[in-house]
Every structure is written in structure tokens, then in C-alpha cells.
Amino acid sequence: MTLTSQLIQYLFTGLTLGSIYALVALGFTMIYNATGIINLAQGEFVMLGALIMVFFTMVLKIPLLFGFVLAVMGVTLVGALFERLAIHPLKNASLLTLIMITLAGSILFRGVAMFLWGKDPYALPPFGDSKPVQFLGATLQAQIFWVLAITILVVFGSGFFFNRTLLGKAMTACAFNPLAAQLVGISVRKMVLFSFALSAAFGAIAGVIITPITLMEYDRGPLLALKGFAAVVLGGLGSAVGSVVAGFIIGVLESLGAGLISSGYKDAIALMVLLLILWVKPSGLFGSAEESKLKKF
Amino acid sequence: MKREDLYTLLFIAITIGLFPLLAGGQEYYLSLLIFVGINSLITMGLSMLMGYAGQISLGHAAFFGIGAYSSGVLTTKYSFQPLEAFCAGIFLSAIIAFLVGKPTLRLKGHYMAVATLGFGEILFIVFNELSPLTGGPSGLSGIPPLTLFGHPLEGANYLYLVWGLVILLLLFSLNVINSRVGRALRAVHGSELAANAMGVDASRFKLQVFVLSAIYASMAGSLYAHFITFISPSSFSLMFSILLLMMVVVGGTETIWGALLGATLITLLPEYLRGLEDFEVLAYGAILMVVLLFMPQGILEGMRKMLSKKGEGRVGRP
Amino acid sequence: MSQRVLEVQRLQKFFGGLRAIDALDFTVAEGQIKSIIGPNGAGKTTLFNLITGIFPPTGGTLEFKGKMLNDLKPHDIARLGISRTFQTLELFGNMTALENVMIGRHGRTVAGIFRAGLRLPGMRREERGIKEKAFEELHFMGLENRAMMGATSLPLGEQKLLEIARALATEPQLLLLDEPASGLNIRETEKLSETILRIRERGITVMVVEHDMALVMEISDDVLVLNYGKKIAEGLPRDVQRNREVIAAYLGEELTDA
Q: Within this chain, do residues C74 and C102 fall inside the same structural domain, yes or no?
């Protein structure tokens, strides 16, 4: 394989990984924008989406599309329940408690997953052909294009949702000023619930589309969350566009690092990016330093 | 409070002293208590960091690992004396804590949590990848046991060693808490704005406590390595960092005794889950959630509130 | 001629487009009680925040006894000898009244983690000194009976006095009081008035931000009036009181000649 085709390979792998990080980052951003908290259980939504889908399609033999929808709905429900039972009661608690409760949620979800599915990784069949595709000299799995296409669809869909629809704008209003939002008739409670549900849905979608390529096991959550969060910070907390772009950047960096430098340390690459950004410019590429000083976190 | 602390300390010392007799020399129970002691060393430092300085660390397993691997690697591969390796571990942990802590402690809330999480994960990867040195995922074996005048320290003697250190560090920690430094930390926790205005260099103290907690964890790691003589990266994973955090939160961050209580409860928990290993992670998540929702100040404070009378003019946490 | 304790020249603080402080010049002489007044939002607390280093000025200089304050951090400024209270009461709710005041001694003491952990004799002596001095300040403010009570369990009036005790414990040469009388009743305000005069007797220079005009007129040697971040008057209390611009600023409109 020539260097060019190798690089194309890495690029596409990177974009694929980046899609997942972008979706996770979007989930983080949505919850942050509506509540001001970072949901450390975000990665588990991805994991649960994948494993529930595995259950539906592999065990119950439900057709792919239905399984997809059901899995996403299932995880959305989990997200909503999580908000109602664990987040909402603590809305006036200290920051430390809030961080810990999402952490507790992540452990609980992992525990349930370990109990139901064990520690083994699971696979899903690719959505279309299992035949690999030739592109610019590189051999790519067809699933990669499904991942990219669906991700772009979700990203543009949410962009439209948040900027053009009333509901979406209402959600953003809540984060800026919950009191004002309430005064104009927006139910902050509902918005918070909705943000968790939507984040869970995004996570689930990410989990389902990536598993045909990378498989999924019960404890993939934390690393996914960390990398997704790296994307959030790199792109500027609160900026959806930034999160998505940064997600792709991190995915590509990771893939190039894994291919060209060392595959053992590939996870560490995204994490180093995370630490460096936090230490040097926490407001990220697209955020402003002054604006980030005014934010709660 | 000082007298109360002294009595509790004596109580612990006496209990540990008598324990080998009570346990009938059973290695198994002795091991359990040794692990409780080792975990207590870490949680004491973590409690000072979280409870008094008001910071959070989701990556403390890393320092535990640095201590363990320093002792393990230096004594097996480089013929260091255990005490030398112990000190090397402390030194390494302190330096890394200083370098990582400086930029990290400046961060607010969630950012700090995630940064420490990331740091812990990176170190976990390093432990796995530096195979020539650390033995990689298969671990490092053949770590020599500690000896005193040629006799290996085992069983009851190791118990005394570990808990002796626990008690010494408890004394040290209590002294710090009841001093100008402890007050400064609590002031920063109460109102960083006012603390700074009164001359407290908040960042400096936060960093000092962070480094101190890393040193405690490193000591625990070294003792751990020499006790079980085999270490692998899986003991220093995110799950352990979270477990440590749980110990501190469940026990209660109000006082340093909460750290001991939490370490005891959580270390002994798997005992109650015998045969239910599948439930282990689930149980941890459930317990943490229940404590946070219903007893956020921890079990020690919860019990204290139930037992004490009201209206004593007790000073509450902000 | 008495020494200049604080010298502020062409001070500016902009928050984006908002000019919180604009081209401000004034001085504070040693042993003075100088009050800062002005309508809400005039920039009074911002001025205090600039002096104590909570944020840096956008332009201009702040000089304290010849030392530049511009780039210093709050804890360094405290150690230089400037202390303050807060408009929004920033007591340490997780500590007793005594412990709150003891924190004030932090900048004048040295024991670090090591000496504290080992409880070396020097440290113990220092601790005793801290406790004594703290009790002295509590006594000065009339709060010695409250020493062991939780700081935020005290009634509001006493909490405000406690904050002053804490600031006094730092051995300041310049004390900044930010709305010390807000929330106090008439009797408490009178006591506050006496207290500020007694503080001046100790040789401490005092700056007071206040809305209570009776208090300002009674204790001030000099009054500085701010509006929209600018100085609109400065001088003796009775002169400022009669200044047209000052009256207009408070009433919000032009006065017709009456």
C-alpha cells in the first residue's frame, strides 16, 4: 500500500471515529446548554445503544431498521428516567454532588450492562454490504459511509432543530437564563428532561452505527466520554458547531497517531489533547476567553 | 474536637493491636484489614483534598500506581532497597502531582474533574504500554516482601506496619487540619474570594494538599506492592479511582474519620457480595447513587445527625 | 504634610463596552476616613475590587504607599496591608466566628504543612499568638461572646461586625468597608459609626462605600462621589452635600432653579 492510500485509510478511519466523538460531544453540549452540568454518563448512552441493539437484532432477530429505532427509543427512555430520578432531585445540590451523581449513573449503567451482557465485546452486522469499497486507492469498509452519512444527517438535523424550531431555541434559552426562560413560559423542567433524552438518543445512534466496525463492550463508556469531552473543550463549551468540528479533528488525530506512531498509545493521544486544551486554552478553538470566564464551569 | 480525635485514634490502635488475636491468626481476615489500611492511606489524603480543600480528583489511582510500580520495578529490576524504592515513589508522585496539579487546580469544577479523569486514564495506558519496565498487562511479579532484620514481614506484622503508618499519617493530617494550613484550606472552601482577600494564597495551598494526597497514595501503593508481590495495571484503573472517590463520599467528607469509615465499608463490600460478582459494579453504582440522593454528607455525618441532639450550635458546611 | 496612603491616577476599567471606571483620579491621606458615594452602579464596588486586585485595571495606576498594585494578586495586596469587607458578606460559613478572625492572621504568620503536621514548637507558639490576636479583635468589635458560634449562625448585624474583625486581624494600614451599614438598624448603625472612628484611632486609614448619608456625613473627613464610573465631586462632606451635580445624580434629573 502506498503512503497516500495509507493516509486516506487513516483519514477515513479518523473521520469515522470522529463522527462518534462528534455525536457524543453534541450530547454533552446539549445537556450543558440546558443545565450547566457535564453528564459523565454520556459514554454509557453510546454503549447501551449498541448493546440493546445487539439484543434486538441478534437475539430477537428483529429487522435492522426496527431494531435501530427501538434501541434508540430504549436508551432515550433510560436518559429521561436518569434525569427524573437522579438529576432532578439534586438540582440544588453542590457542584461536587452533581458531578458525582452523573458518575454514579455511569457506574450503575456499566454495572447493569456487565450483569446483562457480561464483559465480552459484541458485534453487529454492517448495515448494507459487507463488501469493502475501493476509494482513492484505499480499501474501506462500507459501514464507514453509513457512519458518516448518518452523523452528518444528525448534525444538520440538530442544527436545524436548535436554530430554526421554537423548541430548540427554547432549550438554548434555558441555559442562558433559566429565570427569564421561565418568565416567558418555557418550562425549564421539561427542557432539562428533553435535553437528557435527546443526548441519550444521540449517544445511542452513535453506538449503533459504530459497533459494526469497532464492536462494543460494557466498559467502553468512560473513554468515549473523555474523548467526546475533549472535542467539547477543543471546540469551545457550548458551541455545537465547535464540538462537531473538534470531534472530527480528534478522530483524525487519533487515527493518524495510531497508524503512524503507535497503536498502543492511541487513546492517550485524544486524552493529551484534552489535557493540553484544558491547561492552555480552556475556552477552546471557537470560544472566547472572556465568555468562558463568565460561565459557571 | 481534639480530645475526641485522640480517643478515636487510641481506639483504632487498640483494635488493630488486638485484631490478630481476635482473628485467630487467620491470614484471610488479616489480609482484609491490611487492604482496609492501605486504602485508608489513600482516602485520608483524598479526603483532605476534597473535604477541606474542596477539590476533586477522579484519577488518584494513578498515584497509587506510581508508588506501586516504583517499588515493584526498582526492587525487582534495579536491586533497590525497599525503603529507597519507597522514597523514590514518593518523590516521583510528588513531582508528577506538582506538574499536573499546577495547571489542573486552576480549572473550575467539571473541568478539573475531567482533567483528573484524563490524567488517570493516561497513566493507566502508560502502565500498560511500558511493558519492558512494568510488565505490561500481564503485570510485574516477584516483588520482594519487606523484611526487618532479615525476617520477612508477614501477616500480623504487616498489619502493624500498615496501620502504624496509617496512625502516623492520621496524626500528621489531624495536626495539619487543626493548624493555620487547615484553616486556610477550609477558608478557601468556604469562600475563595474572601480567603484570597485575607492573604491566603489559595492556589498554593490547593497544590500543596494535592501533592500531599499524591504522596499518601504513593506510600499506599508501595505497601500494596510489597504485600501481594504481584501488580498489574488493572488494579490502577478508572474503576479504582472511582472506588476511592466512593470511599470518601460514602464515609463523608466532613471529617477525616469519614475517610477511614468509607475505606472500611467499601473495601469490605465485596465480602458481602460473595458469589454475586456479576452484581459488583452495579452494587457500587447503586450505593453511590443512594448515598448521594439521600445522605450526601456521607454515612458518618448521617449517623452523627441521628444520634446527636439539636441546637448545639454546630458549625455546618456551606 | 500627611502621607499619601493611596494614589489613584487615570484609573480605567472597561468590561467589554461598559466603562465601569473612567479616568478616575484621587488620593487618600494617612489617617483619613474617606467615603465613596454614588448611585447604584456608579462603580464603587468595582473600585474596591480594583484596589484589592480581584481584577486588573484596563488602564491607569493604583499606588499604595509607593508600591504599584496593578498586577498584584489579592493575597499579595492583603499582605501589603490592605484589607476589606464585602458588600455581599463573605464569611466562612463552615467555621466559627473565632476561626474566621483567625484567618485574618494568615498573612502575618508562616507555618506551612510540614511544620503544622509535625506540630513543631515554633508552630505551636504561633498558633497561640493567632488565637490571642483573634480574641483581641473580637473583643474590639464586642463579639467575644460569639467566638465559638458558627459564623453564619449570628444575626446579620453581628456578621457584619465579624467581617470587620476579620479584616482588622490582618493588621491593615488601609481598610476598605463595602456598605458596612446595609441591613443594620439605627442603633447598630450608630455603633458602627463609633467603631469606625475607633478604628481610625488605631492609626488605620479607612475607605467606606456607603449609601447611608447620615453615617457618611458623620464620620467622613473627605467624600468622593462617583457616577457612571467618573468622579463628579470630591471634598468635605458638607460641600459635597450641596453640590448640584451630586444632587442631580441621585435624583436622576436636572434640577430647575428653585
A: no
- Which carries the bigger pLDDT value, residue A169 or residue A198? A198
In the predicted model, what is the mean pLDDT of chain A? 86
A89 interface with B at CB cutoff 8 Å: yes
Q: How far is CA B290 from the centre of its chain?
A: 22
Cell of B156: 500480623
Report if residue A274 sits inside a domain: no
Q: Which of A137-141, B98-102, B118-122, B196-200 has the lowest mean pLDDT?
A: A137-141
C33 sits in which H/E element: strand C33-37
pLDDT tens readout for residues B115-169:
999 999 999 999 999 988 888 899 998 888 888 777 888 888 899 999 999 999 9
Chains within contact range of chain C (3+ C-beta pairs < 8 Å): B
A287: alpha, beta or left, given left = phi > 0 and alpha = psi -120 to 50?
beta
CB-based contact B186 C95, cutoff 8 Å:
yes
Q: Do B109 and A107 touch (CB under 8 A)?
A: no
Banded pLDDT at B279 (limits 50, 70, 90): confident
Partners of A94 on chain B (C-beta within 8 Å) are 296
Residue A25, domain member (yes or no): yes
Which of C171, C206, C240 finishes a domain?
C171
* Cβ within 8 Å, pair B194-C91: yes
| Whether C178 and C167 share a structural domain | no
Which of the four pLDDT bands, split at 50, 70 and 90, describes residue B248? very high
Flag whether A237 is in a domain: no
Dig out the grid coordinates for A235 from the structure.
471546540
> What is the total count of domains within chain B?
1
- Chain B positions in Cβ-Cβ contact with residue A222 (cut-off 8 Å): 117, 121, 238
Contact A274 B284 (CB under 8 A): no
Backbone angles phi, psi at A116, to 5 degrees: -80, -35
Residues in chain B whose Cβ is within 8 Å of chain C: 172-173, 175-176, 179-184, 186-187, 189-191, 193-202, 208-209, 212, 313-318
pLDDT in tens, C112-157: 888 888 988 888 999 999 999 999 999 999 999 999 999 999 999 9
Is residue A144 situated within a structural domain? yes
pLDDT > 90: what percent of chain A?
41
Task: Identify the chains in contact with A, defined as 3+ C-beta pairs within 8 A.
Answer: B
| Minimal C-alpha gap between B292 and chain A (Å) | 7
As a whole number of Å, the CA-based R_g of chain A is 19
* Residue C142 CA: distances (Å) to CA of B92, B186, C136, C191, C208: 51, 25, 10, 10, 21
For chain C, what is the domain count? 2
pTM (predicted TM-score):
0.88
Question: What average pLDDT does range B291-297 have in this prediction?
Answer: 86
Q: Which domain range does residue B147 map to?
A: 2-241
Q: What is the pLDDT of residue B283?
A: 87
ipTM of the complex: 0.89
Expressed as residue numbers, the domain containing A147 is: 3-221
CA quadruple A183, A185, A189, A192: dihedral, nearest 10: -100
Residue C1 pLDDT level (bands cut at 50, 70, 90): very low
Report whether C75 contacts C107 (CB < 8 A): yes
Contact C58, C12 (CB under 8 A): yes
Mode of pairing for the β-strands spanning B140-141 and C230-235 = unpaired
